[in-house]
Every structure is written in C-alpha cells, then in structure tokens.
Amino acid sequence: MKRIALLLVAGSIVAGVLAFTPSASGHAGEQATPITEIKVPAGYRDWRLISIAHEAGNLNDIRAILGNDAAIKAYREEKLPFPDGTIIARLAWSYLPSEENNKVFGREQSFVAGPPTNVQFMIKDSKKYAATGGWGFAQFTGGKPANEAVPKACFSCHEPVKDRDFVFTHYAP
After folding, report:
1. What is the residue-wise DSSP string for 65-126?
2. What is the 8-class DSSP label of residue 47?
3. Which of 14, 75, 71, 10 is nearest to 44 (CA)?
4. Would strands 87-97 and 135-141 be described as parallel, antiparallel, or unpaired?
5. Could you tell me the domains of the chain?
6. What is the dihedral of CA 49, 56, 156, 14, to 10 degrees?
7. Are 32 and 145 in contact (CB under 8 A)?
8. How far apart (Å, rounded) are the C-alpha atoms in residues 67 and 167?
9. pTM score, two decimals?
10. How confident is the model over 102-154, as pLDDT tens digits?
11. Which of 16, 27, 136, 145 could share a disulfide with 112, CB 3.0–4.6 Å?
C-alpha cells in the first residue's frame, strides 16, 4: 500500500511539473545573460525529461531537469564528457500541497508545482567556456537574466562533481 501511495505522489509531482512547464519562465529570444551572452534556447520546454528533484532548505523547490537531443544521447550512452552542443535546463517551482489529491489520500502527502521560481541552463562549449570546465551557465527569472554574480557562482558549486563533467543530475530513464 505504501508503494502505491509513493507512486501516486511521484506521479502527481511529475504531472504537476509537466502541467506547469509552459509557465516556467522565459521565452526564446529574450535578453541574454551579461557574462555568457546565453539566451533562453528556443523550444527548451519540449526537450526530454532527464530527472526531477526536490531541494529543501533555503531553496525549497521542485525541479524538472530537461536536456536537448545531445544531452539525452550522451546520458543514454553514458558518454562523458558531454559533447559540445549539450544543453541542460533546470526549471524550478515552489511547491504547494494539493488539497484535491490529499482528500483522496486522506492525509496531507501530495504536493504539486506552484509558482515558477527560475530556469537555469548549462551549455557545453569546451572552447568558449574553457575557464569553467567547458560549461556556460545562465539563470533567468521571469524571462530576465539574473545579475552577473549568479552565473559566476555556478561553476564553484559544480566543481565537486568534476568527475561527472560538472553535472549533478543523473539520468532517470
């Protein structure tokens, strides 16, 4: 019974993430981040799902990690380092209890995507971004790039996973 409830909760989270993906933030052609000149890639909301995550603490959000075709191919082939042209997107939302789902479960246990918080991108170009492990980093909130300090700090957080080409997310087929 616990396994069924867990599967229902996971399914609800994924459904909520996918349902709210169109409003996550940013559209192609909007402003570029000042440091890397990265723009929101066209069609990123249609990319394949790599994994989902919940971050607690100060972030306290749920996330969908998406990848373009190059990213998905590298993940499936377990190819490291990721090839140039790989783009990984991280869409984040606050999360809210689902009163509707909780009525079905008989207790508070279900959460769904709430308002979007931001979208981040990692773009692999080993020459252009050689100083940051071959990755360019960008963050957008409400379609606008974060201030310069935010993407500059990304690489230092990713350094502990250098052996995985600076990528935290494992593929969840």
Report:
1. EEE-HHHHHHHHTT-SSPPTT-EEEEEEEEEEE-HHHHHHHTSS--EEEEEEEEEEEEEE-T
2. S
3. 71
4. unpaired
5. 2-164 (3.50.70)
6. 0
7. yes
8. 12
9. 0.77
10. 999 999 999 999 999 999 999 999 999 999 999 999 999 988 888 776 767 89
11. 16
Contact call for residues 138 and 38 (beta carbons, < 8 A)? yes
Beta carbons of 40 and 30 less than 8 angstroms apart: yes
DSSP lists the bridge partners of residue 88 as: 67, 122
In one letter, which amino acid is 148? Answer: E
Instruction: Please give the Cα distance from 169 to 51 (Å, whole number).
Output: 7
The amino acid that residue 7 corresponds to is L
Residue identified by tokens 């020459």 is 127
> What SS3 class is residue 164?
helix
Query: Residues 52, 90: contact at Cβ < 8 Å?
Result: no
The residue among 116, 122, 148, 114 whose CA lies nearest residue 50 is 122
